[in-house]
């Protein structure tokens, strides 16, 4: 396989790369080297509709994987076979859907959809499983909050659907546009290296390196967030913010039994300055999403004064009506 890719693509075939082919008269094809050992490959031919695929393939007769391999060879314009010893292991035919459930959550009994049960999109871009993992990360701490008695089910699940629907829509828009580009493109697309980066963070963004309420905190080396509870981040500007703020935060978390951590970030670092602007405080929930940003060195009122609302203020960044 590697030899053939060298002939098709050129001598500089990096290990573990993905290759895209668009030959005249053929639909786009992609080949991924997936085990890093040049032994296991994964290929796809994309047809605009099921009618454009060979009848036996769209009819679901996919038991003969070597027949599918010949289809892939044709799409990649292989004038000679992939090489001796190549074995076709499996073949699928699937339809790329663009679907999202109308309702993701129920209050009573408390229930939530996650993963492919909540949304489907084309595998192009590799977002499906990643979105499901993101759903689980957003759902996990909410369920823990209910089980630990920090939040009522309705409050805990509030925002889950909107947040994850937005993540799906972002990925789906990318996939739909990319698929249209691939299907319409005439030119050969150069190979991509393993671990390629997307221009924007589609799965769960921070915003241009900025800390924004409702979005994930940008990553700062050395900053460890409390994954079982909440984190208070203090932007160090010289004065002792920890002494001024941390006791009230720790006391509020202690009243409702939420694990907490206080973390100081160096305001002199350029990335921190970009992220926080004029803000001095941030509170993050267990999945690193920012729930509060403050310019002044003071916590939200609900955290300091009203024990009953502290959980909503800390974890949801809002007061939830009883
Ligand atoms: C060709 C292809 C390539 C892909 N490549 C990527 C990729 O590179 N990156 C990526 O992130 N995603 C990729 N995906 C998407 C990814 O595979 C799916 O998003 C992911 O597997 C969905 O996981 P899930 O657990 O939500 O659902 P599923 O994998 O569908 O799991 C649901 C499970 O529930 C079981 N089940 C159903 N009903 C019942 C019942 N009544 N009782 C008990 N069990 C039940 C099913 O048998 C199944 O095992 C790809 C998909 C395809 C088709």
From TrEMBL:
| Entry keyword annotation includes Flavoprotein | yes
- Sequence ranges assigned to domain FAD-binding in this UniProt record: 95-167
Q: Which SUPFAM superfamilies match?
A: FAD/NAD(P)-binding domain (SSF51905)
Pfam families from the xrefs? FAD_binding_3
Keyword Flavoprotein annotated: yes
User: InterPro entries, from UniProt?
Assistant: FAD-bd (IPR002938), FAD/NAD-bd_sf (IPR036188), RIFMO-like (IPR050641)
Task: Name the source's superkingdom.
Answer: Eukaryota
> What keywords would UniProt list here?
FAD, Flavoprotein
PANTHER family, sorted: BINDING MONOOXYGENASE, PUTATIVE (JCVI)-RELATED, TRK SYSTEM POTASSIUM UPTAKE PROTEIN
> What is this protein identified as?
FAD-binding domain-containing protein
Q: Which organism is it from?
A: Emiliania huxleyi (strain CCMP1516)
């Amino acid at each position: 396989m590697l030899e053939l890719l060298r002939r098709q693509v050129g001598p500089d075939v990096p290990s573990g790369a993905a290759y895209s082919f668009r030959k005249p008269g053929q639909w786009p094809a992609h080949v991924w080297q997936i085990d890093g050992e040049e032994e296991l490959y994964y290929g796809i031919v994309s047809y605009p509709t099921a009618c454009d695929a060979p009848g036996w393939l769209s009819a679901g007769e996919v038991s003969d994987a070597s027949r599918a391999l010949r289809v892939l060879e044709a799409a990649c314009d292989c004038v000679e076979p992939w090489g001796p010893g190549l074995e076709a292991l499996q073949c699928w035919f699937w339809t790329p859907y663009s679907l999202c459930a109308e309702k993701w959550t129920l209050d009573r009994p408390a229930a939530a959809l996650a993963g492919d049960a909540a949304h489907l999109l084309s595998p192009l871009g590799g977002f499906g499983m990643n979105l499901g993992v993101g759903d689980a990360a957003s759902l996990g701490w909410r369920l823990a909050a209910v089980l630990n008695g920090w939040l009522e089910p309705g409050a805990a699940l509030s925002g889950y659907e909107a947040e994850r629907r937005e993540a799906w829509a972002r990925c789906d828009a990318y996939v739909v546009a990319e698929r249209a580009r691939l299907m319409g493109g005439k030119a050969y697309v150069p190979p991509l290296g393993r671990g390629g980066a997307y221009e924007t963070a589609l799965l769960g963004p921070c915003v241009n390196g900025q800390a924004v309420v409702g979005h994930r905190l940008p990553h700062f080396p050395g900053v460890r967030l409390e994954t079982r509870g909440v984190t208070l981040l203090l932007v160090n500007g010289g004065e002792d913010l920890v002494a001024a703020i941390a006791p009230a935060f720790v006391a509020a978390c202690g009243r409702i039994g939420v694990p907490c951590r206080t973390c100081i970030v160096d305001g002199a670092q350029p990335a921190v300055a970009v992220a926080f602007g004029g803000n001095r405080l941030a509170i993050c929930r267990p999945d690193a999403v920012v729930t509060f940003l403050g310019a002044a060195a003071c916590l939200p009122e609900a955290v300091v004064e009203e024990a009953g609302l502290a959980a909503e203020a800390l974890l949801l960044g809002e007061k939830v009506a009883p």
